[in-house]
Each structure stands twice: as structure tokens, then as C-alpha cells.
Amino acid sequence: MRTAALLPGTPDRAIVDTTWGTIQPIQLHPGVQTVGELELIAHLEAGLPLIDTRRPESFVAGTIPGARSLPHTEVAQRHSELDPQVPAILFCNGPQCAATPHAIRLLLELGHPAQALLYYRGGVHDWVTLGLPLTQPSR
After folding, report:
1. Residue 30, pLDDT above cutoff 50
2. Rg of the Cα trace of the chain?
């Protein structure tokens, strides 16, 4: 398990696996803003892009509603899918997941402006731990 899962029979308790990954910093890079859940929701309500940097199989298993998939392993090849003039929030599994930090480092190296990248450090882990919904996108 790489995210939180609801404890069977209890709608308000989650099981969290903390045995993998390395805790990521709040500030990834100067100019890259870290955001929380309320900022993410407002971002989506404004019609701005939300990018899931996890592997495709994780994305189809469940993602934050409104997210689209751009796996961190494909950022170098697909970076042109992000408009450097439009801020995008990127997320992965949670505070200990390195996928989004990896994707952001690659994007910066490729010349994407830091101010157009926002980091939701909490990722799917914190999202579901707070009882927020996931969706299963069509393949």
C-alpha cells in the first residue's frame, strides 16, 4: 500500500503505510510554491491543471478528481504538454514520495519557469487521510 486506506468498518479512520520513501522537503526549489488542499481545490475550480506524476497504474487505480496523468518517468518526453504560462499543481503519493520532486527538477532543468509549478506535497496520502474523494479515470 502506498497511500492511506480506510480502516474497514470505520468511515473516519485510515491505515497509513509509512514504511517506504523518504520525507520530502516543503520547499523544493526557490520559486516553486507548495500548496495545501484548499489551494488545490481553488486551483481546480479556476480550471487550472492538476498533474498526477505517479505511475499510470496508480493513476487509474484512483486519483484526485480533475487530475491528469503525466508520470514523472515521462516528463522529459512530454514536458511540452505543460504550458509555461499557466500554473500547474503537481502531486504524487504523499510527503515521502519522490515522484513529484523528480518531475519538478526535470521540468526546471528543461527551462520550465518555477513560478508555473506548484507542489502539493500531501499528495494522495494526505488527500484521502482527510476524507477527500478519489476518482477512477477511464483508461
Report:
1. yes
2. 14
